[in-house]
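Hello,

I think I submitted the cytidine-5'-diphosphate job twice by accident. Can you confirm which output corresponds to this input? Input:
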Amino acid sequence: MKKIIIAIDGYSACGKSTTAKRVAEELGYAYIDSGAMYRAVTLYFLDNHVSITNLKEVERALEKINIHFENISGANTTFLNGANVEKQIRKMNVSNHVSEVSTLAVVRHAMVAQQRAMGKRKGVVMDGRDIGTVVFPDAELKVFMTAEMGIRAGRRQLELLEKGQALNLDEIRENLEKRDHIDATREESPLRKADDAVILDTSGITLEEQVQQVVALAKEKMMENA
Ligand code: CDP
Ligand code: CDP
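Support: Only one job matched these inputs. Its output is below.
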């Protein structure tokens, strides 16, 4: 069957990356976590005291950033300039700054160019905020995920706890709300549903159900494009 591109966009902590990864495994596709790339850039900016109001400084820093992914024991792992930063990029300090960094057009242009190169041969599932609208506007399947805020915050709390970070529910909720607001209102490629995206509300369904729904949609699209 012909390989397609699957774009999964939506709000924070709706289940995009977990679903995208599982769908990619089922279809034998590559999974690309575009959010991890923005998080890695943010980590670099924080560690190197890059001021996001100084465009020249941001441009110079971007030239020094190299991001790649590796599969380590089945887990998609993010590398920044050769170092495994998977754990660090999920920390609250990065979560609290990533959306501001992601408003910068120069940052977005650099990330989008890399993401398009990664999807050149198709057979990819990519999740983020602008995948169906900007990165791959011609993606054969676009899914827009939503879920109720209370459910999202609870799921993120559990996810972080499983990774050894115990965080207060209010702090998580505040971060998700703030990021959703910045992501949806920024000037450069704001988070919005593509006209041809299928809405998937994950509030009342299991992870397995949402994976199977996306796989079924993907198979339909593969047949149409065969
Ligand atoms: O997994 P979570 O929902 O916490 O976020 P993420 O996918 O890791 O993305 C972190 C942040 O990166 C988002 O809140 C956006 O500010 C930014 N992002 C973006 O602007 N465009 C993307 N394609 C992906 C992420
Ligand atoms: O990528 P995004 O920020 O949209 O969300 P995620 O990090 O994939 O999902 C947040 C957490 O919700 C993960 O621990 C998932 O396993 C969990 N979850 C889910 O995605 N869907 C459900 N129906 C139930 C739980």
